[in-house]
Description:
6-stranded parallel beta sheet
Amino acid sequence: MRLCVVGVGYVGLVTGACLSEVGNEVICIDKDQDKIARLCEGKIPIFEPGLSEIIDRNLRSMRLRFTTDLRRGISQSQVIFLAVGTPAAADGSSDLSCVDAVVVEMGRLLTEYRVIVMKSTVPVGTQARITQTLHSLTGASFDYVANPEFLKEGGAVEDFMRPDRVIIGTTSPRAKEIMTDLYAPFMRKSNRMLFMDPVSAEMTKYAANTMLATRISFMNEIALLCEHVGADVELVRRGLGSDPRIGSAFLFPGIGFGGSCFPKDIASLIHTGRMRGVPMSIAEAVLQVNAHARERFADRIKQYFSGRQDDVTLAVWGLAFKANTDDVRESPALHCVKKFLLWNMNVKAYDPEAGQAAGAVLDGQIQLCRNAYETLDGCDALVVLTDWQEFRMPDFEAVRNRLGKPVIFDGRNLYDQTRVKQAGLEYYSIGRLPVCNAGSE
Ligand code: NAD
């Protein structure tokens, strides 16, 4: 099939690459000329495991092309995917200006039947608005499909190639048939396509993200109570997750969720509820608990060094909002680092992939290191903020010996308390009593 994808960010690039990988001819379009120029040379602007190999292969076979020319994409493609950003506006609603700009341009260019597929996360009711705009701009026929994306950064290629489910929101039998063909290569083991009306499809995406975030915030609230009653949240988490009705995913306590999706999608759901007079009380509590989790963690470190913050240098492991990505948008790790800087602490940091992006946001205020151990030299504490694999089994002896003061603040509960204790380190984590008796073997 001939396809085009408008918006070549995390979602658009993965979508375009994976669709070309199964034999489609895909034109990827972005308004960012630099990004397109670099992609034409095979330079990938994001870190996503497995992505560069797919792009290389399909660029060479000419199944995948990059351009800034929307006209070319629309005239040559049967299906047009929209994957532009939908960030949060100041009032919590979704800022749809990028979507609207593409829709208006597209409306002027449509001359024959096309399927328009919305991959961006857009508020409930967007389908009706876009359809109306397009009808006002073109006499050409089209079908609109709400096809929210569920990939997760860090595992995006795998998620796209082997999706848990594909939600297709359309009332058109013609579009349904085209979408079924399009996704068939990804459904060989079993058909996981779910068809529904566009409004329900739009709603499903918000409900899914809010549910996942709710689990994280729930665990963070339980973790707080664990600290007060002397329970170990890691044992509680295992006990809880082993119930098949509950399951173990998204139950990890820590400094909370971030990224470009959960915070803004929950805010948008709350806004939609407000517009319809339906309070989204759970969603509101989820955001509140989330904000509290990272504040509490950062405050604990401030209190520990109370009165002498100016002399403190922290070694930070992890800046990305989660492991396996270079994305620092709404990163709780960056939020904590900003707090440390506000309190006049010095920060040395290392992240396997997100150093450059974080450095740009923090504008030279932190010292970026080339590896995890280098950050420790001359520091007063190790602060773990992202759960990268390479941080999970450190050489605790080396950590203790390189740190000026042998203390770890772990915002991701990565370590076994007994091992840390044996290494003579003081250890603070989330929802577990601190290990304070440094030096004991
Ligand atoms: P992104 O910011 O990484 O990329 C968006 C791209 O759209 C940018 O390259 C931008 O230049 C381009 N763009 C903006 N306006 C344009 C225009 N008029 N014409 C052409 N290109 C234009 O965004 P993302 O993270 O890929 O997210 C895209 C959408 O998918 C959002 O709605 C997001 O909520 C949703 N989503 C994201 C993820 C994720 O993990 N990132 C997962 C599921 C859904």
